Amino acid sequence: MYFELKENKPHGTKDDPFSTYHIKNEGRSFQIPVHWHDELEIIYVKSGFLTVSISGENYIGTPGDAFVVSPGNLHFMGSQAGEEDYFTFLFPLEYISFCTDDMLDDKLLTPLKNGHLMIKPRIKDAAKELCEQLAEIYMAKNDEKKLEIAVQIKTKIILLQFILHMWENGFIIENDKSGRNTVEKEMISYIQQSFTGEISLKEFGEQFHLSEKYVSQYFKEHFHITLSKYVTYLRLEHAKQLLQNSDIPVTEVAMLSGYQNVSYFIRSFKKTYGVSPLKYRKNEPSTWI
């Protein structure tokens, strides 16, 4: 089971760049495949046991735990039990910048953004109260279905309190891993640019100086997902976006998403999302995420 990822699209909107995703799973194992983005991400576990991997380090999140993904860091989440309730909060660091080139921007926010500084990935329950406040704002805003200036002010205050808490408690450190994951990120970029066509293991191996036999093993070891499943994930997510944002016929959606066999595309889509492509298009997308 895959949940929607939007690493290839801007999170939030111009009016509200802060994004919250609430994933409450009920008995189905899942993995959100490896990805990265320019925003800072806070992962907050409400219940269950969430597997989190950040820059190659693996963690198990328990209720009340929080993790921070600094901008540009490869990460993924998943669970075998499928009993998780967790939030992710994403925002560009400019969202809490005062745009004055002052000490906060120069010595802290800009170095966090460009990778010279990072927040320790695992912060346990050090920010539980602040994460709860962000979750409450999300639930209230979701119910009201409207954006208010007051909500943004409250959100920014909490995020600044979060950064202050990280700073005062020594969670902000120099990033000695800024060069790590370069090859892995290049691999993901290569696949993201090529997934609608045929990806040859031989060409992929030659691109990254790996033997054809070792490519699949390397990918599985580093990303905890097989290469074929990752390609399938990208193709189906691409198809979802086409179905949601265009009137292109399902047959053409399949072809544009890398499927030469339309029947196989329909079966794969329904197996993953529990609904046919046509029915997905006719209903609100949130119903099927």
TrEMBL record:
Q: Respond yes or no to whether keyword Transcription regulation is given for this record.
A: yes
Coiled-coil region(s): none
Ranges for domain HTH araC/xylS-type: 185-283
Q: Name the InterPro entries for this protein.
A: AraC-bd, Homeodomain-like_sf, HTH-like, HTH_AraC, HTH_AraC-typ_CS, RmlC-like_jellyroll, Tscrpt_reg_AraC-type_HTH
**The UniProt record lists the keyword DNA-binding:** yes
The alphabetical list of record keywords is: DNA-binding, Transcription, Transcription regulation
Q: Name one Pfam family in it.
A: AraC_binding
Name of protein: AraC family transcriptional regulator
The protein's organism comes out as Blautia wexlerae
**Biological classification of the source:** Bacteria, Bacillati, Bacillota, Clostridia, Lachnospirales
